[in-house]
Design brief:
Helix content: under 10%
Largest sheet: 10 strands, mixed
Structural class: mainly beta
Number of helices: 1
Number of strands: 12
Distance between the termini: 21 Å
Oligomer: single chain
Order of helices and strands: EEEEEEEEEEEEH
Number of domains: 1
Radius of gyration: 19 Å
Strand content: 25-35%
Shape: globular
Length: 235
């Protein structure tokens, strides 16, 4: 089994790129107006953003950490590296993330989120751009809600899901490019994003919120010491 999105990102080039440095700078100073090739279609690679602002690629079959966002609940902090895209709008791109149910014949969307993310060229990978941590690393990609709000009839923690990342047109929301991988979201024993919860209860809180058929109040702090994680429900 692979680790939690732990593969190393290899430095790669493009076959027929137009160097971003030749594209000129836009109103944001040193930020180029374009990254990659202007004649090739946009492309993206899926990443997991780490609490320190670094990121790792998410490969098919990887585990992905479930984390606590600023507004409660549980999310997967995912994002994308992109190429062959315009950065003329100060690097702002619209990124969408969806979690699809692989057991559903139509692979219906259980959770989704879209947000505008600021991008800049990668120093160690020509012709590709990476998300910028504007104010907070959580702004480097969609905070894909997975637990704590919606009563979906299937466990999130420990079950395989389809993660889809999209680059969308900022004005029309049309999908410019999308990629999918199968992932297994996993709760962490030590979630640094939940300081109000005792360390010994962090795992129980995540497992409670991420179990099937969530109901408000089920995971109140007072009930967590007695929480017993039910058998895995991935069907």
């Amino acid at each position: 089994m692979r680790g939690i999105a732990a593969a190393c990102l290899a430095t790669m080039g493009c076959s027929e790129p137009s160097p971003a440095a030749d594209a000129g700078a836009d109103e944001c100073g040193e930020l180029p107006a374009f990254v990659g090739s202007s004649v090739q279609p946009p492309d993206l690679e899926i990443i997991a953003v780490q609490p320190d602002g670094s990121f790792v690629p998410i490969l098919d079959g990887d585990e992905v950490a479930i984390r606590t966002p600023l507004d409660g609940g549980k999310v997967m902090l995912v994002g994308a590296l992109v190429t062959n895209v315009s950065l003329a709008d100060c690097g702002r791109l619209r990124i969408g993330a969806l979690l699809r149910d692989p057991t559903d014949p139509e692979e219906r969307v259980a959770y989704n989120e879209e947000r505008h993310v600021r991008y800049e060229p990668m120093a160690d990978r020509p012709f590709w751009a990476m998300p910028m941590p504007i104010y907070d690393v959580r702004n480097m990609g969609p905070n894909l809600e997975t637990c704590g709000f919606s009563p979906y009839p299937r466990d999130v923690d420990g079950c395989e899901w389809i993660l889809e990342l999209r680059l969308e047109d900022t004005r029309t929301e049309d999908i410019l490019v999308s990629e999918r991988v199968r992932v297994t979201p996993v709760c962490l024993e030590d979630d640094p994003g939940a300081p109000s919860v005792a360390p010994e209860l962090e795992l129980a809180l995540c497992q409670c919120q991420c179990a099937a058929n969530y109901e408000p109040g089920r995971c109140d702090t007072g009930s967590l010491p007695d929480w017993i994680d039910p058998p895995l429900d991935c069907e």
